[in-house]
Amino acid sequence: MVDNEEMTPDEARDDHWQMLRFLGFNAGFGFAIGLLIAVAIVWMNVGDLGTRMARSANPPLVFFMLSVPLAFTFASAVLGSAVMLMPYKRKKQLKG
Question: What count of other Cβ atoms lies within 10 Å of the Cβ of residue 26?
């Protein structure tokens, strides 16, 4: 007897790609939020950071060292929340 709720290999492959797209979109969104926050911190001169960055020998390197870890932190936080909210139900269960 065949279990009718099993996904075919093609359906499973499509489902995996859909989940990867979902996770990739959320990670990119979190990365963009982190970059925007880094730009806002420098632009609003929080803690005199913008002024110190402007006076440094290599301002792009300083901004890179500030923004990339912040962006990865936000990307991982958004990705973690996306994993917790990801629907794990199979498509066949939704049809029935």
Answer: 19
Instruction: At 74, list the tokens.
Output: 């936000």
Half-sphere CA count of 40, side-chain side, radius 13 A = 8
| pTM score, whole prediction | 0.78
Cβ proximity of 84 and 23 under 8 Å:
no
CA angle 42, 72, 29 (to 5 degrees): 90
Distance in angstroms (rounded) separating the CA atoms of residues 9 and 5: 13
Residue that the structure tokens 């969104």 belong to: 29
What's the pLDDT score for residue 71? 97
